Amino acid sequence: MLSFTVRMTFEQDDHDEIVTTLCLLTEASRKEPGCVSYIPHFIDGDPCTVLIYEQYADEAALDFHRNTPHFHRHAIGGLYQKMRQRQIENLTAVC
After folding, report:
1. pLDDT tens digits along 20-51
2. Residue 35: what pLDDT?
3. CB under 8 Å, gap of 24 or more: what pairs does 53-57 form?
4. Distances from the Cα of 33 to the Cαs of 17, 24, 36, 55, 81, in angstroms?
5. pLDDT of residue 51
6. What's the DSSP call for residue 12?
């Protein structure tokens, strides 16, 4: 199982567009084979920072996700074009 978070910051003026893009990306991503969890969050008190918690069954499922048309459209062509900063944290399960 692969688990990680993606933290991105955006301009306040882009908030509504980011919400729409996240919802489209989330809906499609959750339907992928091998996607265990895909949950975007805004940080409480910071409407410009998004944290996405993602889990995939294996590396193949993550590769599949990163090569889908919806990832290219909504992540690379949408979120990545608007983000000011991006950080990925890989996670290791305890139990």
Report:
1. 999 999 999 999 999 999 999 999 999 999 99
2. 98
3. 53/3, 53/5, 54/3, 54/4, 54/5, 54/6, 54/29, 55/1, 55/2, 55/3, 56/1, 56/2, 57/1, 57/2
4. 27, 17, 8, 12, 27
5. 98
6. G
56 vs 3: CA distance, rounded Å: 7
Eight-class DSSP state of 58? S
Residue 32 near residue 67 (C-beta atoms within 8 A):
no
pLDDT for the residue 2: 96
pLDDT at 67: 98
Q: What is the Cα–Cα distance from 95 to 76, expressed in whole angstroms?
A: 33
Burial label for 85, CB within 10 Å (0-12, 13-18, 19+), is: exposed
Provide mean pLDDT across the span 7-15.
97
Identity of the residue numbered 34: G
Q: Check: CB of residue 48 under 8 Å from CB of residue 11.
A: yes
